[in-house]
UniProtKB/TrEMBL annotation:
The lineage of its organism: Bacteria, Pseudomonadati, Bacteroidota, Sphingobacteriia, Sphingobacteriales. The keyword Transmembrane applies. SUPFAM superfamilies: Nucleotide-diphospho-sugar transferases. Keywords: Glycosyltransferase, Membrane, Transferase, Transmembrane, Transmembrane helix. It comes from Mucilaginibacter hurinus. Pfam families: Glycos_transf_2. This is Transmembrane glycosyltransferase.
Length: 372
């Protein structure tokens, strides 16, 4: 009986190995060999940058001037001041006096219902003057003065959705290192899927789409009852192989600060992971099996080595997968300006798969009640 159990465990380990290798070679390799446009073409598509901000006075002071100073001929910045109780309103009015391209939309508390980010964004989209919309958050800073131009040039194609990349600042510490690693692993997954013709999510800190697409698909109506998901659920429901493109030139990055406390990080990740259950069924299956097979791969590897179940072969398969990861991820991490993350891969990836499974379960049962 013990022999059969050992054989079953090793067989399951091999299934997980093959599954992980499939994701790596079939999906992630597409991103490794994708070359972003090097020379920036001149483009003059009118762009509306939309930012929903609640009590973000400090972040608006730090980052909004960088967006208003973008080197682009025709753009406006729509800031939705969503029920703020700090000095955001006075700061925005003062800034508007010297920046006519800044448009302010004010949302006030309603006695009968609590507004959320989706409501604020909808008000911003309605107020936007232009067809092409570019989204970010108040706590984000563009990597360069060409952020708008880099994102906008993609609308010269048939694209209606542009998926960008938003890394965290490198500040040191375990939490920051893992947050940066988790962010790049998430980006590898959703950017690769888009290149493969099956886009399933985007990040609201750096994403663009058309006003026509938003209103023709009734905006956030189908998931307005869910506090999070203004970015990934919208993409999951409306992105196709034909209407979606990615932009990963370093000039187009949108940087932000990672959470510095476990409490803040836990709250953020619970909110993000809670919307996964509303993805399309095929995407839920794909992401779930990636998380489960990755988790089991490391658990079963440890069992094989400890219990002497073909330990040399098991460790050999692990090394083969790691080598393939290094070959493929070295190109991706270089493009995404995170080469140092490759060094942490053997240590952080097992933790990453534990995180995916734990927060996947938490997100299934916990409902987020607020966005700020």
């Amino acid at each position: 009986m013990e022999t059969y159990i050992y054989e079953a465990l090793f067989l399951l380990f091999q299934v997980c190995f093959i599954s992980q290798l499939y994701y790596l070679v079939s999906n992630h390799s597409k991103l490794a060999y994708y070359k972003p446009l090097r020379d920036l073409r001149k483009v003059n598509i009118p762009i509306s940058v939309i930012i929903a901000a609640r009590n973000e006075e400090a972040n608006l002071k730090a980052n909004l001037p960088l967006i208003l100073a973008q080197d682009y001929p025709d753009f406006e910045v729509v800031v939705v001041n969503d029920c703020s109780s700090d000095g955001s309103d006075l700061y925005l009015l003062g800034l508007q006096a010297n920046h006519p391209q800044l448009k302010i939309v004010t949302v006030t508390e309603h006695p009968r219902f609590k507004t959320g980010k989706k409501f604020a964004l909808t008000m911003g989209i309605k107020a936007a003057s232009h067809e092409h919309l570019l989204f970010t958050d108040a706590d984000c800073a563009p990597a360069t003065h060409n952020w708008i131009a880099r994102m906008a040039v993609n609308f010269t194609t048939k694209a209606q959705i542009v998926l960008g990349y938003s890394p965290f600042y490198k500040t040191g510490g375990l939490l920051n290192t893992f947050s940066r690693f988790e962010t790049i692993k998430t980006a590898v997954s959703y950017l690769s899927a888009a290149l493969k013709g099956d886009p399933y999510m985007g990040i609201g800190r750096n994403m663009a789409y058309t006003k026509t697409l938003f209103f023709s698909n009734k905006g956030f109506a189908s998931h307005m009852h869910v506090m999070a998901g203004d970015d990934d659920l919208f993409v999951n429901q409306n992105a196709t192989a034909d209407n979606t493109i990615i932009e990963i030139h370093p000039d187009a990055f949108m940087f932000t600060a990672a959470k510095t406390t476990l409490r803040g990080w836990f709250r953020q990740k619970t909110r993000h992971m809670g919307v996964g259950k509303l993805y399309k069924a095929k995407h839920r299956r794909m992401l779930s099996w990636d998380a489960v097979s990755g988790f089991l791969f490391y658990i079963l590897l440890a069992l094989c080595v400890i219990m002497g179940i073909e330990p040399l072969l098991a460790f050999g398969l692990y090394l083969f997968r790691l080598l393939m990861q290094i070959l493929i991820y070295s190109k991706i991490f270089k493009t995404l300006t995170a080469k140092d993350m490759l060094f942490y891969l053997p240590v952080l990836e097992p933790i990453y798969y534990i995180y995916l499974n734990v927060f996947g379960l938490i997100g299934t049962f916990i409902k987020t009640a607020q966005w700020k």
